[in-house]
Amino acid sequence: MAVEEDSAQVSEAQIAVHWREEEYIQPPAHFIGQANAADPAILERFKEEHFPECFKEYADLLSWDSYWHTTLDTSNPPFWKWFVGGKLNACYNCVDRHLPTRRNKAAIIWVPEPEDQETRAITYQELYRQVNEMAALLRDFAGVKTGDRVTLHLPMTPELPVTMLALARLGVIHSEVFGGFSGAACGERIADSSSRILITMDGYYRNGELGDHKVKADQALDRARQEGQEVDKVLVWRRHPGQYASKSPMVEGRDFFIDELLPRYRGAVVEPVSMPAEAPLFLMYTSGTTGRPKGAQHSTGGYLAYVTGTSKYYQDIHPEDTYWCLADIGWITGHSYIVYGPLALGATSVMYEGVPTYPDPGRAWRIAERLGVNIFHTAPTTIRMLRKVGPDEPRKYNYHFKHMTTVGEPIEPEVWRWYHEVVGKGEAVIVDTWWQTENGGFLGSTLPALQAMKPGSCGPGVLGVYPVIYDENREVVAAGSGRAGNMCIRNPWPGIFQTIWGQPDRFVQIYYQKYCRNRESTDWRDWPYFSGDGAVQAADGYFRILGRVDDVINVAGHRLGTKELESATITVPEVAEAAAVPVVDELRGRAVEIYVSLKPGIAASKEVEEKVSMAIETEIGKIARPKNVWIVQDMPKTRSGKIMRRVIAGISNFTDVGDTTTLANPEIVDEIRHHVQSQKMSSGEAPRELSAEEAEEIKAFGQVE
Ligand code: WT7
Description:
It is a single chain. The longest helix is centred in the N-terminal third of the chain and has 17 residues, at 124-140. Mean pLDDT is 92; it is low at 1-13. By secondary structure, the protein is an alpha/beta fold. It is 28% helix and 21% strand. It has 21 helices and 30 strands. Helix 14 (380-389) crosses helix 15 (413-423) and helix 19 runs parallel beside helix 20 (667-682). The chain has an 8-stranded mixed β-sheet, with helices on both faces. It starts with 28 loop residues before the first helix and ends in a 5-residue tail after the last helix. 5'-O-[(S)-butoxy(hydroxy)phosphoryl]adenosine (WT7) binds next to helix 12, strand 20, strand 24 and strand 25.
């Protein structure tokens, strides 16, 4: 759609799309030769006419205690039930069943942040021991029972997967809160899930410092208490057993060191509890929400089958691969693609404790070289950071990836090409996997040996997933029309979350109400899933995700996607990262402001600002020309690396920036505010008082709901 088009024709869901079509890149022959999914017959088997039975193929990758009788039960939509009648244990599937064939193979290789500390390889046998002893402690000392919820606030150390698997062994629902989150955020999640046990760690390394983490447990318990939830016991792992890294006192009768208790359970064996397929396995609270947190409830059978199948075919994991997902387990990516998927396949999963660029920009590639990593998985934010601080570093290390993944936000084609050429050395196939916390596993991706890559596009729907783009009038937006709309999935899939913990009405309202055709119908075809993302589908069926539909900037009636503004910006060679936000403008309703950070060694200049404006003008059009380009040291980011656009939008508009407690770098906010607002004041861009609606819009900008 042309920018000049009459705005009256632009429906709410439509975003002006100005992306250029990118070239296809074919997977290398050596990859195809060894791929798990190399025969196109698999695409046939997962066609819609074989749905839902096609997912038997995923379920059959697992070991079931009792086999299921019904593949998909749709009797109470949209609360789908998969593999009904089946019973299994997730821990058994990830650990015990590998012992006969792979007892002494590494399950987890853990790399501590300090380079002088030893890398730890945990074999399946060792994992089996640790998980059993921990399960015994949890059952006999902490008194947890099947169906209870237990909150974990653990960093990236092996104790995290050990604890998750021990709880799964007992049929207890784990709820891991990202280690970087504050005590208050943890407390809210404890209260929301009514956990009576918190499992934490005294400290962990980040950027060379052993920080105090246990202190957050006390704050968490205070917050939980305010919300009416008492916690009986706090179990504390110690980063260095026997030494306590926190200043926070241990509370007698409440707080216990796990390393002191474990010897009591030496050699204990705990029978895995056989759980119904639809029993909840874990809760994962979604980030960036306002109001009550949303605990996405994931099932045991459907979820595990889905992550195992997608790990096999989309991550192309073979047992002999060394697979490294550089993400945090406190994020759904880590649950699905560090722990459950790879371990269910009997693979070796690498875990890294700290900052990927510590102590220098070569660290990640040194780890890859040292361990012989051949599958690498990370997020665009990490890729951009690695590119920013060490654009040539990968060339200095002798590693070879066969496969790489990008996940979590749209990747700019420029950045994609660096990933492919420099990180992947032109040898690796890339999958750009689109999905969400709520989805359990990938929804949009190319099947790596069978479908060509296209930078910036995730590809078609994955096996057994049939996406569609609807407009606001519930009409299908045709592939190749150049129009964007709301990305939806027409069918249920085994990894879909079961509900929002304790909020079933909100679950239906957010994800299904918008496109449900008939509330009385028990036919899944009447219940499309609404993702909340905007997307455009090319004529070849590939989807390009434009980001959340509420991240749109409406300039004089033209809806501009933040991601395409940012992609245009990043074509300027000096730019490392970009964020686009709206600023209230008397003339045009909203104008665009662009925040950029530059590559190392490049100084801020008027010239760079002008280049950014020009790039946007050429790539998108005059209408999108930014009112200001702000060059900043760094962007405010969440701990999972997402740029908090609402914070900079607040700064640009002189409004309240809202809660910044979950930021990874809260100190940057004042620095940016000072820089931007003092210049605005002196250039006479006097802030007028925003109306309540305008202020609300700015505050909600870039929020994920
Ligand atoms: C949102 C979900 C995927 C699990 C981790 C993030 C965006 C995710 C992609 C991608 C474009 C993407 C979407 C989605 N997103 N992957 N490959 N291309 N956008 O989970 O925190 O729940 O975020 O991340 O906007 O809705 P999440």
